[in-house]
Amino acid sequence: MGDDGDERADVAKTDGPPSRSETATSRATQLTEHLASSNPNGPNTGRRRRKPKPDDLPADYSDILGQLKQLRAFAANPNSTKTGYIRHRETGKLWVRDRIEQLLDKGSFREIGSVTGKVNWKQTGPLTEEPLDFQPSNNVNGFGKLRGRRICFSADDFTIRAGHADGALFAKTVYMEQLALKMKIPIVKLVDGSSGGGSVTTIVTNGYAYIPPLQGAHEIVAQLNAGIPNLGAALGTAIGLGAARLVACHFSVMAGDVGSLFNAGPSVVANATFEEGLSFSELGGPAVHCTNGTIDNLAANEAGCFEQLRDVLSYLPNCGTQMPPCIPEDDPVERLCPELRTLIPRKRERMYDVRKLVTTVVDKGSFFEIGALWGRCAIVGLARLGGKAIGVIANNAEVLTGALDAQGSQKITRHL
């Protein structure tokens, strides 16, 4: 009887309702299995991965990377059959990327916005295409180095729309102005065209004229106030807003063989004033602007402009809160200059060469004159003493016996 009673008691315990702990364990197990089966990151054993089809786009974006490579190749090689490029070369001017190569230190060019422009696409499949032709923006921007100094630069491409405004130009130009301001590094501008001025094509398309906005003016003024060097070169016809960007620079230079600057070209002047037959040089060439102070210096050609840009930058800091670079000099600071004793005549009525005085006092070969062709009664420039950059101001005893006129005063004020 005792054994049978124990067995019945065990059966009763087994067949009875489950305990609370057993119920909780069962529910936790079910919940875990449900979450594991619905986890998107877990292995999906219920479905097979679809086999790739020939028309599927590559997972590594190699198609897009290949298109970018093609567009960069289009931009880096000019279309020698286009009229704009042929005329540009016939005038003796360098192509924009040849200019950049000659200006910057070798291998230092880093382009910004290299694939901005207009693309003609060819459909090669339901989801694929390839570029047939590419017209890049007519303004090349980027970073580079001048004698080891990092700079921002912008360079007009006159072969495309003669440097006039297009959709990509404004944004690129303003962006580089913003970068120069934010990074506090010098900016160099190679102007050949309107640099984003008005476009006759746009006027014809819209059916009305418009006043082109001066994009980047706020950034340019902020750069000047911050002492960030702005250097510009007229390497062709600087027109309209291109002329404005150039004359706003701290230092400007014009290529004597191809450079000119004006608000509007000879045809516009002829219609407005009936003065016909003016050439670019007669309207705004070196004989006009290098003698009235609009442009600081004159160079024989584009290579001469590049050399002057390098020279000027070597005297200037990156911004107004930094010191200019100090360059070691072989000229000893204890050097005696006995020629100075006889340089100034005893008779006050006689004139003497002030430039000889300046070049004798400063480090040998370091004097860089600015504005030699205008305001000639004053001499200003940059030089070094013991390797340190200095500014130079002097009255020219050989012009007006050293007295200052309006242009000479303006020249000194601007240099200060």
UniProtKB/TrEMBL annotation:
GO-annotated molecular function: propionyl-CoA carboxylase activity
Residue ranges, compositional bias (Polar residues): 20-38
PROSITE patterns: COA_CT_CTER (PS50989)
InterPro entries linked to this entry: AccD/PCCB (IPR051047), AcCoA_carboxyl_beta (IPR034733), ClpP/crotonase-like_dom_sf (IPR029045), COA_CT_C (IPR011763)
Region ranges (Disordered): 1-61
Residues annotated as domain CoA carboxyltransferase C-terminal: 328-416
Protein name per Swiss-Prot or TrEMBL: CoA carboxyltransferase C-terminal domain-containing protein
